[in-house]
Amino acid sequence: MTTTQLSVQSPTTGASTRVEGWNCGLVTPEVVWKGVIGAVRAVMAGDDQRELIKITVGGDVLSDHAVMPAPDGSESPDAWLTRMQQKFGAETPILLYARELASHERSLFDLLVSAFGRPVFEEHGLVRGNIDIEVFLGEYRATPGGIHREQCGNSHFVLQGRKYMHFWHGEDWIPETAGWRAAEGDNAIDPEEYLPSLQVPEVVDRGTSLIASAGEFFTWDPGTWHVAETVGPAFAVNIARYTRSFVPGEGAYPFAAEPDGRVSIEWLEGYRDFLGGKADLAAALAAASAYGLAGADPEHKETTDPRRVAVSSHARRLWYESRGSVRVAAHGRSSVFSASVLPWLVDLADLPYEAICEVPADPDTRALARFLVENNSLRAVQGLA
Question: Which of 7, 29, 167, 285, by CA, is between 20 and 30 Å from 363?
Answer without folding.
Answer: 285
